[in-house]
Specification:
This protein is mainly alpha-helical. Helices cover 70% and strands 0% of the residues.
């Protein structure tokens, strides 16, 4: 049994890619709208800087435009596009172009206030998100990338494996370690028992 909405989306994306390859600018704009947030999230997980990630989004879609002729419709478009973005991230880091700007507001996780027991809403929810984001930044690179792709980009393990060129088992292992490490890092700030 196939997942009908997912299959329909794949067909729509394949149709848009074929149209964009034939010069349809609106189809290319639609592909950009559909995937720019995911490309940004991936870029940010690698580069850890908003401006660098925004630059990466532009570079990725420029590269996509240049490479549309090489896209094969039987391939997963999203995984193919994210592979382009990932390769650009790696090139960017190898060339040492990542800007050395502060990735947070200037407060280290260690300097944050101790946990509180306010109900989880409004300001408390923002605090929890801030703590999570800071802790995600402290993960090892591969763990951070897998966690980001799974929870922020919402890819399945198989799609992450295809994009990163690793096995599904490695994805599961890295995700497990990321979650375990995040629990450990967040415990003091959330008031969790051991």
């Amino acid at each position: 049994m196939t997942d009908a909405p997912a299959e329909e989306l794949r067909e729509d994306v394949s149709r848009l890619a074929r149209a964009a390859r034939s010069g349809d600018r609106e189809a290319f704009r639609e592909l950009t709208r559909m995937y720019q947030k995911k490309v940004f999230a991936l870029g940010y997980s690698f580069l850890r800087n908003r401006e660098d990630a925004l630059d990466l989004v532009q570079e990725t879609f420029l590269r996509l435009y240049q490479k549309l002729d090489s896209y094969r419709p039987e391939k997963n478009f999203e995984a193919w596009l994210l592979q382009i973005a990932r390769n650009l991230c790696i090139d960017h880091l190898r060339r040492g172009e990542a800007r050395l700007r502060s990735r947070t507001s200037g407060t280290s996780v260690e300097d944050m206030d101790p946990p509180d027991n306010r109900p989880v809403s409004g300001e408390r929810l923002r605090d929890i998100r801030d703590i999570l984001n800071r802790c995600v930044e402290r993960l090892a690179d591969r763990q951070r990338t897998v966690f980001t792709m799974r929870h922020f980009i919402e890819l399945r393990n198989e799609e992450i494996a295809e994009t990163l060129g690793i096995t599904t088992g490695t994805v599961k292992s890295l995700h497990f370690k990321a979650v375990r490490n995040l629990r450990t890092m967040m415990r003091p700030y959330m008031g969790w028992e051991r």
